[in-house]
Amino acid sequence: MNLKRIQQVLTWNIIGYKRDLLNQTLTLASLSFLFAFFHSFGGYAEGIADWEGIKESAAINVIMIAVLFILNASNILFTTRTRNEFVNFMMLPATHAEKFCSNFIFQTVIRVVCMIASIMLADVVQAIISLIITHDAYSLTLATANVLYDTLIEGEGVKEIIKILFVHSTFILGGCFFRKRQTLFTLLAWICIPILTAFVVGFMGYGVVSLADEYNYSITVEIIPEWEKYANIAGYKITTAWAVLNYWLSYRIFRRLQYINNRFFN
């Protein structure tokens, strides 16, 4: 892969979809400001800046960032929504890997940068209003950063990051696998697959227990604390490997995209 070509395709994406980025930034900034304003309204009524209200708004901001980070992943094929967009994108002088990487960066890094910019914009507006009303203000941006720090650094940061990346990888895969309405169908898959898995496992477990009762066997499950630690480590390693596999499968599907495709999936 050529980093210069990835940068060129990414620049082309940013220029071509700058209105979409601007709309998302302004929408999220408006929501962030409204949350901060209403959570601080009690303090404004008393003439004081409300730090607790800002902290609650910051927690909502973190949730919005996490949700949008995952949902945006399902739109990784945003450059192929119409036939004209598909042709223009595929005609760019870059390899499939470079185009996939540019779309991936756009839907993750660039989108996150826009989210951060929206929170900073909302912070400026709420700080000005707070200064006018109470002659004091707290930073919504710093409060949001503090919530992220407490969640990822002081908490089980690596484990939380692995979980987020796994979910992110499944939405990337869903965005490449489904032809249309990728976000909706990926969400439905997240609902249906666990339910079906639980049903199958439960049915098999019931069959094993029934068979044991028929032959007068007893089944007991004992959790050994020493083994639980290694089981958790193995679980996170498997989750990481699964996430990498999802990203790789997404790229493989991306390479096989066709101009004419009337099927339900790519």
Short summary:
This protein is an all-alpha fold and 266 residues long. The chain has helices at 3-16, 18-39, 41-46, 51-73, 83-90, 96-134, 140-154, 157-177, 182-214, 225-255.
Question: Which tags fit this structure?
Answer:
single chain, 266 residues, mainly alpha, 10 helices, 80% helix
Task: Write the SSE topology.
Layout: H1 3-16, H2 18-39, H3 41-46, H4 51-73, H5 83-90, H6 96-134, H7 140-154, H8 157-177, H9 182-214, H10 225-255
Helix pairs in contact: 1-6, 2-4, 2-6, 4-6, 4-7, 4-8, 7-8, 8-9, 8-10
Describe the protein.
The protein is mainly α. Helices cover 80% and strands 0% of the residues. It is built from ten helices and no strands. The chain has helices at residues 3-16, 18-39, 41-46, 51-73, 83-90, 96-134, 140-154, 157-177, 182-214, 225-255. The longest helix is centred in the middle third of the chain and has 39 residues, at 96-134. The model has no long low-confidence stretch (mean pLDDT 81).
Strand segment count: 0
**Structural class of the secondary elements?**
mainly alpha
Question: Tell me, what's the shape?
Answer: globular
pLDDT < 50 stretches: none
What does the largest sheet look like? none
Order of helices and strands: HHHHHHHHHH
Compute the separation of the termini in Å.
24 Å
Radius of gyration: 24 Å
What is the arithmetic mean of pLDDT? 81
Helical region count? 10
Please bin the fraction of helical residues. over 70%
Could you state the oligomeric state of the chains shown? single chain
Give the DSSP E fraction (strand runs of 2 or more residues).
under 5%
